[in-house]
Amino acid sequence: MAAESAPPFFTESIILLAASVIAVPIAKRLGLGSVVGYLAAGAAIGPYGLGLFGSGEDVLHVAELGVVLLLFVIGLELDPKKLWRMRRDIFGLGTAQVVLTGVVLSAIALAIGTPRNAALVAGFGLALSSTAFALQILQERGQFSSAYGQRAFGILLLQDIAIVPLLAMVAILAPGTGASTGGEIVSEVFMTLAAVAGVVLAGRYLASPLFLFLAASRAREVMLTAALLVALGSAGVMHAVGLSMALGAFLAGVLLAESSFRHTLEADIEPFRSLLMGLFFVAVGMTLSFSVVADNLLFVLSGVIVVMLVKGLFLWVLARATGSQTTDAFRIAVTLPQGGEFAFVLFTSAVSFQIFDFETANLLNAIVILTMVMTPVACLALDVIAEKLKQRGIENPVVETFEEATPAVLVIGFGRFGMMVAQILTSEGLEITAIDTRPDRIAYARKLGYRVYYGDATRADVLSAAGAGKAALIAMCVENDRVMSKSIELIKHGFPNVRLFCRATDRAHAMELARQGVDFQIRETFESSIAFGRAALEALGTPIERIQEIEEDVRRRDRERLEMQLKEGLFAGADRLHAVTPRQAASKTSDSPYPQDHPHGRAS
C-alpha cells in the first residue's frame, strides 16, 4: 500500500522551523539578536544558499501578515491621546528624515551615473527604515517605552505612511505613464477617505460591543478568531484602496487601545505575531543572492556604509535639533540606519514599471539586508561604549519613562474588594492597571471612571500584557480560590520579583496563601468584623481605651492561632479563643463585667 502523501507545505514548514531553531539561539548567544538569526536561516536554506527553497516570494506573501499583526499590537499600546502627543515626532521629525535622507541618497545615486527616475526611487526607498526590524530590537531590549524609543516609533510610523505617496511616485515616474485625470484623482481620494472612515467607525462603535458579547460566552478560541478578524479585516480594507495593510492594522489597534479588551487582544495576537515576524525575516533572508553580492562586492559594501552613515547622521542631527538629548539622539541614529521591508515593495514595483532592471533591484535588496544585519552589531557596540562610560562615571543613569518613575500596581479582580483597594492606591497617585473576567463588572467600573480591562489571570501571556513584569506590586482580589492559586503559581514562576498581596476568603484559604509564600494576605471579613465589634462596644458605652486594649488582644491572639494552625492543622490553637481576656481578668472581683462607674454596672 502506497504511503499517503504529506500535506502541502509540510516539508517546507519543517525546514523553516528547524533552520530557525538552529540559527536564532546561535545569533542570540553571539549578542546579535533574533532578527539576524532569522535572516541567516533564510539565507542558508534559500535558493542562493542550500537551495532547499526555490523562492522566498511565496513565503514572504504569507509572512507579511506578521508586519500587519505587529503594527496592530503596537497600536494597542498607543491610545489616541498619546498618538496626538506624538504628532510632532510623526509629522515633523519623521517627514524631515524621509525627505532629507531621500534627497541626499538620490543625489548620491545621480552622482554615480544612475538615471534620474531610478535614482529617485532608490534614494527614497533606502531612506525608509525597517519598522519590523527596529521595533523588534526595541522590544527585545525593553526600550520601546523609553523617550528615544517613542521618538523612533514616531519616525517609523511616518515612514509607513510615506510608502503610499512613494508608490504613487513610482507610477508617475514610469516610462510612458500619462497623468491621471482630475476625476480619477478625486475618486481615489474619496475611496481612501471612505476606507479610513470605515475602519475608524467600526473600531470605535462595533469592535468593543462585539468583544463584550463574545466575552460573555467564555469561549477563548472565538475571542482569538475575532481578534485576528479585526486586525486582518482592517488591513484588508486599507489594502483594497491602495494603502498600507500595516497602516490599517495600526489604526484598528489604536482605536481599540482604550477598549477593556486591550490586554487580552494583545496576548491572543502575540504568538501569531511572533511566529509570522520570524517567518518574514526568514523570507527576506532567502532573497539575498550571494553571487550578486560577490560579483558587486565593492558596490554593495559601499552602499551599506553610505546608507547607514547618511541616515544615521540625519537622524542624529534632526533628533538633536528637535529636543532629544545627545545620548537619545545617538540611540535613535543607531536603531534606525537600516533599510526597510517597504523598500522591497518599492523596488519590486519599480521593476514592474521598468524604472530599473531586476539586477539593480537585487543589488539594492542586498544593501537593505546587509544594513539590517549590521544594525544589531551597531547596537551591541553602543552597549559596550555605554557600559564603559558608566564604569568611568561619565554617564549618569536617568529615569527615562514615567513607568520607571512611578510604582505600578496590577489589581486582579475588580469587585467590591478590588475597587476599595484601588481607591486607596490611586489616592496616592499610583499607576493602577486592573483586570477582571466579568464584562458587567468591567462596564460598571468604567462608568465610574476606572480603567479596567478584560483579562484571565490564569494565563501568563495576559498577565504579561497587563504589565505584571513592570508592576511593583500585584493585588490579588479575586473571589475564586482556585483561580487565585493558579495565578499565584504563574506569578511566582514568571514574575518572581513582584510583591504579591492577596485577599483570603476564609481562614483555611489564608493558611494556604501563607504556605504559598505570598507577601501579605488578609481575610476579606477580618477588618470589617473588627470594625463591627468596635462599633458594638462603643454603642454599649465601653471606654475607648478599653476597646483599644480588646482589639489589640484579639489581633494578637488571632496571629498566634494562625501560626499554630500552620504548624499543627486547622483545629490547633483553640485555647487562643477561650483563654481569659484582660477585660475579664480585670473584672474578676466584680459581680458585673463592667466597672463600678459604668452605666450598666451596679448602682453606687
Automatic annotation (TrEMBL):
GO CC annotations, alphabetized: endomembrane system; plasma membrane
A Pfam family per the record: Na_H_Exchanger
Superkingdom, natural source: Bacteria
Keyword vocabulary terms for this entry: Antiport, Ion transport, Membrane, Potassium, Potassium transport, Transmembrane, Transmembrane helix, Transport
Signal peptide: none
Keyword Transmembrane carried by entry: yes
Region of interest (Disordered), residue spans: 575-604
GO MF term (any one): antiporter activity
Stretches with biased composition (Polar residues): 584-593
Domain annotation RCK N-terminal: ranges: 406-522
Record family assignment: Belongs to the monovalent cation:proton antiporter 2 (CPA2) transporter (TC 2.A.37) family.
Protein's name in the database: Kef-type potassium/proton antiporter (CPA2 family)
Organism: Roseibium hamelinense
Taxonomic path: Bacteria, Pseudomonadati, Pseudomonadota, Alphaproteobacteria, Hyphomicrobiales
